[in-house]
What does this fold into?
Amino acid sequence: MTTPETENIFVFVPNIIGYARIILALISFYYMPTHYAVAAWCYIISALLDAFDGHAARYFNQSTKFGGMLDQLTDRAGTMCLLVTLAQFYPEYTFWFQISMTIDIVCHWIYLHTTVLQGKTSHKFVDMSENPIMSVYYTNRTVLFFMCAGNEAFYSALYLLHFTEGPVFVGISLFRAIAYLSAPVAIVKALISLLHGYVACINLGIIDVKEREALRKVK
It folds into this structure.
């Protein structure tokens, strides 16, 4: 029988799914410049597995900090590498892809890092879940999935449009229609990421003030 002291969290089911996501993402990165079908399928499956590792973690009671970090890093790296490729395919929009990468990586990193630092020990910290809109974003898994899927769909559609328009329905191609429909979702998700970064900066300031007060009391 496995005891807490002998548990190997690295072979937990959600973490194994995470490893599969990484392998699929790496295959996608390799084929992105040339073989769009292989790259797109591997990227999309890797992104969809993001929903399954969370369910597995809850079902098997195998939620871990390692798994959460693995999940976050895989998401950020996957989007970043896709945007790097898009910057090569659409050089006239490189600046906007750079801005998108910056927002995605910086805001998620500072928010995650601040959450670890604050430890949720003070009521003074700003909690975005208290906002009714953000509360829905955090507690409704359907909304969260829709936002993440819409964001991925936008950039994936741009990627596919470099190679093909795809099937055409009522005068518009499938991939172009997906890009148009998902663009607002990608914009809103970027704004939410900026809000994450803003709140994280406020909470970091609270941490700094508390630490400086503690140092002054010691002196």
